[in-house]
Design brief:
The complex is a heterodimer of chains A (196) and B (277). Chain A is of the alpha+beta class. Chain A is 47% helix and 16% strand. Helix content of chain B is 26%, strand content 18%. In chain B, 44% of the residues are buried. The chains are: A alpha+beta (196), B alpha+beta (277).
């Protein structure tokens, strides 16, 4: 007894193994994290913000967020390009769908590269919406430890500016929102919704 | 609601909870290198041949305690690693909106049980970030992989359903959902293990098929489509019969019933079946 044969259209875009057995690198490169996180010092940044108002703090974080994401993207797509990234681009070209994973890749690598000890997770990732939760943030902790006013979370400017750089890179049309904040909810939750 | 919905549904059926489809793309690369091939095989969640042999041997020597204990152990492993549930085609099509990327691939069950060539066997759908790493499983993807636009995936799933494949959604490390199999008995290992050995590697769906014998014309189209041994044909009355305790609620019988004699009812609305998964 056997099951029926499946009668189907032939695959149009079949990908086959290029070099079976060849070890490929899928995870984020440790050296990417070392190189990006080595370019900034969180304690020094926080110390430089002592005595400044929230607006100035936000501006400093925003500039840093842009800089770190630009560097991450540059390195992640050249020196530290991994197989996951290559496949994300190939699949996006094949399906015609960019979001969420081209954008998600840069967001994830941005956090891993600049704050490798952070605790975070992706809790939604569809072609319409992505949600990121950060619940253990080195920047927030440093601000708190330094006794800076963090109720308004000026450090969110760092995350938001970095996301905007990633969004510009992928050219996805997204509405970026902060849905929860660490000081109130115990986590920062960012949502990225595709604009209709 | 089944236990999976209670634990992982966030108020919905667990396969409609977008959180169960989401996963990080990246971790920092291990210095020891990344595991590949059989050591991370998707089928590792299924009881293997030696485990099934152990089950049969316990039954053979009449050791029912050992038999029950093994069944519990295998079910517990499935719940942790790779648990499935039968879905109707409507549920499947709705769930597609949470999946990306989506790819069509060889069914490993039929490759194992029937040695079907890849070109006749590309009936399984995988999805989610893990698929970007498909080359880590050269045995599974020997026949290649085809990434699909969600609309093309829906079209393929409808076609498979028409051809008589029952659809079972699987977790890949519960509650993360990563696979949608289109299955037929006896080629499907999961159905075979459930029906032949009582191993609950996948659960019944949220619906149950019921038949109104007064509307049944006796055309006989439905019975051969059942993959779960729940349907039979009563030759004396000339009507089909559905055993509700065996029905997995896939809806394959409903979709060919032109007289409207077969319908799906919610399992939880039927007291005797509400906890029969």
């Amino acid at each position: 007894m056997s099951t029926k044969k499946f009668v189907a259209k032939k695959p149009r875009n079949l990908m086959t193994l290029e070099e079976p057995g060849k070890p490929l690198l899928y995870g984020a490169d440790r050296d990417l994290a070392a190189e990006v996180s080595g370019r900034w010092n969180i304690e020094a940044l926080v110390a430089s913000l002592q005595g400044k108002d929230e607006k100035a703090a936000r501006a400093a974080f925003e500039g840093l967020g842009k800089e770190l994401m630009q560097l991450t993207i540059e390195l992640a797509d050249t020196k530290y390009l991994d197989r996951t990234g290559e496949m994300i681009e190939r699949v996006a070209r094949q399906t015609g769908i960019s979001f969420p994973h081209r954008f998600q890749r840069y967001v994830e690598l941005g956090i891993i590269a600049s704050r490798p000890m952070d605790k975070w997770n992706i809790v939604k990732s569809t072609t319409k919406e992505m949600v990121l939760q950060v619940y253990g943030c080195a920047v927030h902790q440093a601000i708190k430890d330094a006794g800076l006013a963090c109720e308004g979370l000026p450090c969110q400017a760092l995350c938001l500016a970095s996301f905007e750089v990633a969004r510009q890179k992928t050219a996805d049309s997204l509405e970026i929102q902060v849905r929860k904040v660490l000081t109130r909810d115990g986590m920062c939750e960012f949502s990225f919704v595709v604009r209709p | 609601m089944c236990d999976m919905c209670v634990d992982h549904g966030d108020g919905m059926q667990w396969h409609f909870n977008a959180a169960n489809y989401a996963r990080r793309l990246y971790k920092i690369r291990k210095e020891s290198g990344e595991a590949t091939g059989a050591e991370i095989s998707g089928l590792a969640g299924f009881p293997q041949a030696d485990e099934i042999l152990e089950l049969i041997e316990a039954l053979d020597r009449g050791d029912m305690d050992a038999h029950e204990s093994l069944l519990r152990e295998y079910e517990s492993k499935a719940r942790r690693e790779m648990l499935g549930q039968t879905l109707t085609i409507d549920e499947v099509l709705r769930a597609v909106e949470f999946m990306y990327p989506i790819a069509r691939m060889t069914c490993m069950c039929r490759k194992i049980t029937e040695a079907l060539p890849d070109e006749e066997n590309q009936t399984c759908i995988g999805f989610g970030p893990g698929l970007y790493k498909w080359e880590r499983w050269p045995e599974t993807y020997h026949g290649g992989i085809e990434f699909l636009h969600p609309d093309d995936a829906r079209e393929l799933l409808i076609e498979l359903n028409k051809q008589g494949f029952a659809q079972i959604m699987f977790t890949m490390g519960t509650p993360y959902i990563g696979g949608l199999c289109s299955c037929q008995y006896p080629g499907c290992l999961a159905i075979r293990e459930r029906l032949d050995y009582g191993i609950k590697g996948f659960w019944k769906g949220h619906d149950v098929a019921r038949i109104d014998p007064n509307l049944c014309t006796g055309c006989g189209l439905c019975a051969p489509r059942c993959q779960f041994k729940a349907m039979s044909f009563d030759p004396s009355r000339g009507v089909a019969f559905i055993d509700p305790f065996r029905c997995f609620g896939c809806g394959l019988c409903v979709s060919v019933c032109e007289s409207g004699a077969i319908t799906l009812e919610r399992r939880e609305a039927i007291p005797t079946l509400a906890n029969v998964w």
